[in-house]
Amino acid sequence: MNRADKGDGYLVASANYAANTNKCQRVLGVNMPTNRHAISKVIREHEEGLTRKNARLGDKILLSLPVELSEAHRYAVTRRFLWSITGHGQSRAVAFYHADKPHNPHMHVMLLDRSVADGKPVMHMGASRNKRVKLGLEPNPTEWLRKVWESECNSVLAEFGYELRIDRRNYLERGAEPPDLHRGPDNDNVRDGSIEALEVAPDVDSVSFTETVSEDAGDGDEAMVDEATIERTPDASVSLAANDIRLLASTVTELNRLRHAQTQLAEAQARHAHLVAQRERTALDASLYEQTSLPVLQNARAAQERLQKLSKANGKLKGVGLQIFGYSYKSRTRREAEEAARRLEAAEYAAEDVRITRRDRAHAVDVATEEARLAEENALMLKRSLESVYGSDKDIKTAQQDFERTVLKVTHNVPLEYAREAFLNVEITPDEYQTYLEQAGHSQELADFLANRDKYVVIDTDEGMEP
């Protein structure tokens, strides 16, 4: 949004509206305070600092949060989103959490795309498509925001074991049919003027999976999936090798999830440590400045006291000052009083500069303290989530060792030919077979499999499913 379009004070008004205490339950920010009045002050200073009439004020974003997420995880995904859109903390952003309607939790986000260091654009939200391309950015900033939200949201969903996933694409982009007309309690969907009965999905045990061997495959060639002939056996007769590979796939998934959670926790703890050190440096700088600037304030107070001694009760300067026929006469007391007034003016100017700098440094300490607090909160949340699944640090180490032993045992005990046979008999999925090849180190077989991976597909048939 441009300054010329909205005018001064627009972002401040928007922030005040979004922070309405009757609706806003929490405020999250990057390089922003969490107090509504302090936020308004920062935004107003941002607006007043823009010199061009058509300067870009900022960007307003509305995030619709999945109702399935807990509040803690809603905060987590919003923090990650803010961190990404600010160029990893280079600019400012603030989010206001609204959950007054349980079915519609959402965040009002305000992004000030200006570097806190030099005031230059960070993510170039207002730049043209050509300029964004030259900078290596997504041409459409709105599409980029959607991609960031999809990535960060799915990261949290996967990290904490949610089955739900976010897809920013529309039905056409996904290659899916758009939803049918709304069906009432007594109706089925209406298509082409006729009413179709809602089909009941077959029982899982009754679905058959089939695969075929290409007619072009010779006696020594590997089989290629083409058009269906081999029928999958029921689960009760699945080979031991297939069962082991299924166990391997699930174990690798769990091990990767654990490692990802550990990496996320380590990064969060490292960020917290960095922000704590940064806060301490900022506080130390502010403290040192207070000490070094103290003489300036003392000088102003001394100048004030000096002038008071040389002033009358009504505030006028003491002494005599006359001007007759172009000649002026001032007594010694008047000259001293006027000199005291000049010194006070200069001292007050310097003192005001010191006061402003002190306030700025105190605000920087507050910002650094809040960032460190949020980072600590995020690290604690990640640690609690990890402990809620695996237990104490000792339990986590034991679980990781058990996972690694299981992977080693399965890859050692299942020969390649057994795994290949289980796959060709459709006893394991392509993903499970690929996991086995990756973990067992069969690089050539894996390369051949990946080269033909697109041929292993599942299609609908009248009697069930066919790969």
| Order of strands, widest sheet | 1-3-4-2
Which stretches are poorly predicted, pLDDT < 50 over at least 5 residues? 182-238, 458-466
Provide the succession of SSEs.
HHEHEHEEHHHEEEEHEEHHHHHEE
Q: Average pLDDT, to the nearest integer?
A: 79
- The helix content is 40-55%
Large-scale geometry: elongated
* Main sheet: strands, sense, barrel: 4 strands, antiparallel
Q: Count of DSSP E strands?
A: 12
Termini Cα gap: 51 Å
Query: What is the CA-based Rg, rounded?
Result: 35 Å
Structural class: alpha+beta
Strand content bin: 5-15%
Would you give an account of this structure?
- The model is unreliable at 182-238 and 458-466 (pLDDT under 50).
- 53% of the residues lie in helices and 12% in strands.
- The longest helix has 70 residues, at 240-309.
- Strand 9 (321-324) and strand 10 (327-330) form a beta hairpin.
- The protein is of the alpha+beta class.
- The protein is built from 13 helices and 12 strands.
- Strands 1-3-4-2 form a 4-stranded antiparallel beta sheet, with helices on both faces.
- It starts with a helix and ends with a strand.
- Helix 2 runs antiparallel to helix 3 (36-48) and helix 8 packs across helix 12 (430-440).
Summarize this structure as a short list of keywords or feature phrases.
two-stranded antiparallel sheet, 13 helices, alpha+beta, about 475 residues, disordered C terminus
Topology record:
Elements: H1 3-6, H2 10-18, E1 24-30, H3 36-48, E2 59-64, H4 71-85, E3 92-98, E4 106-112, H5 129-134, H6 141-159, H7 171-174, E5 190-191, E6 194-195, E7 210-213, E8 225-231, H8 240-309, E9 321-324, E10 327-330, H9 332-390, H10 393-413, H11 416-424, H12 430-440, H13 443-451, E11 459-460, E12 465-466
Antiparallel strand pairs: 1-3, 2-4, 3-4, 5-6, 7-8, 9-10, 11-12
